[in-house]
Structure formats: structure tokens, C-alpha cells
Write a structure and sequence with these properties.
There is one protein chain. The chain has a two-stranded parallel ribbon. Helix 1 runs parallel beside helix 4 and helix 2 packs antiparallel against helix 3. It is globular and about 50 Å long. The protein is mostly helical and about 120 residues long. The mean pLDDT is about 95.
Length: about 120
Amino acid sequence: MTAPIIPGLNSDEIPDIIKEVANRGGVTAGYTIVRLTGDKKYFQDWLYKSLPDAADKIWNQIKECHGGQVNDSRFGTRMSGEGKIAESIKQLFKMAKKKYMSGRSMPEYDFSVFKGR
């Protein structure tokens, strides 16, 4: 699982991450776009202190992925987001998986290793 993807902060690293996972034997991958639950001020404080020039852009891109909020609890959109930025992240992830993990799949489950009660 590639998480959290933070638009404008680490989203451009997706291809390199997927390539490295594939080089180490990974057969598939997933991702989650950051959603800030609970006390958001800690992340926001870190963001503005660590990346003052990019903080507004990153913060607003997170909000754009979650319908104007930094958190989205709606099932089906809370982890993948919505809108143009979320769609571009989805496409970048899809392209990286196709490039580096094409033809790979999860192995079949071996249920013989489980013992019944």
C-alpha cells in the first residue's frame, strides 16, 4: 500500500515507488490519498513550518481531493478522493503499475496451510 499520497508533496514520487516495489518482487500495489482526521492542526503546523512556500498549494490540493475539506468520511471516496487532482493521481498510479508490474498477479491462496478447529 502506497500511503499516504499527499498531493503536491509526494504524489510525484509514485512512479519511482512502484518501480522500486516491482524491482523487489512486488506484484501489485494500491494507494490512499491523505485524509486528515482528528486534530488537523499538527499536520498543518508541520506543513507551514517545514514547507512555507508550498504549504498553501499542498493544503488546498488536499482539500480539493475531498470536496473542499481535508477529511472525507464518505465510503468510496474517502481513500481515493475525487476531482481533477485525485484523478491525475489515479492515472499516474495506474500508468506506473502498468509500466512496472504488467503481467504480474497475486498468487493463489494456499488454504492447505490453515488448520481447522
